[in-house]
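Chain A, query sequence.
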Amino acid sequence: MLPTLQVGPLAIQLPGLLILAGLWLGLSLAERHAWRFNVKPTDLFNLALIALLAGIIGARLAYVVRYPAAFALSPMSIFSLNPGLLDPLAGLATAVLSGLVYGQRKNLSFWSTLDALTPALAVLLVAQGLANLASGAAFGAPTSLPWAVELWGAARHPTQVYETLAAGIVLGLIWPGKGLFRSSAPGVYFLTFVALSSGSRLFLEAFRGDSQLLWAGLRSTQLAAWLALAASLLGITYKLQRKQT
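Chain A, predicted structure.
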């Protein structure tokens, strides 16, 4: 694990750097293939930038509202670069809402825009796995397998490596330009990515050591993955049937 990268006098948070690199690479790939979905690269970039900035601001403000005591003695901490001072759900909601507003103003097709953003999301999942590997987050359950890693005082499944490999496989399967998706209905490309990612998450969660259990061994993330998988498969079926009629 390497949470901090020391470059001379600078101490750089490697997980955050990996996420930013994944975002840049993903957006570059998405912009290059945006024409396949009849979306302008500039519109795609602006949408992603607005959603990102709005998401960060919303996540920080929501965290401040939830934990005001943490900022009472040091108000300038509001501008801290520490990602631990963010509310992920609030940030996601703010990012999605701002993206929808921008897309509506620019008259962007909802499903075609999601298709165009799919390569960026796929690359970002690979970067997320690498970021977890650097920070030690999303750690695995204890195991005696020969490829176990020592983390937090125990030999554990290298779930961060599993996660990165699975995301890389998904990226390869949905790589833009593949003939499988050229004649698909708008939205099928994105929904296929959601289905593949949800399926891999169902498998990976079985090896996690930090998941929240609900009942009968079912984990909260697995429940969310099941719902996303079912919704995406239903959406794919509906869109393909509608295209044939």
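The chain has a mean pLDDT of 88. Residues 4-29+113-244 form one domain.
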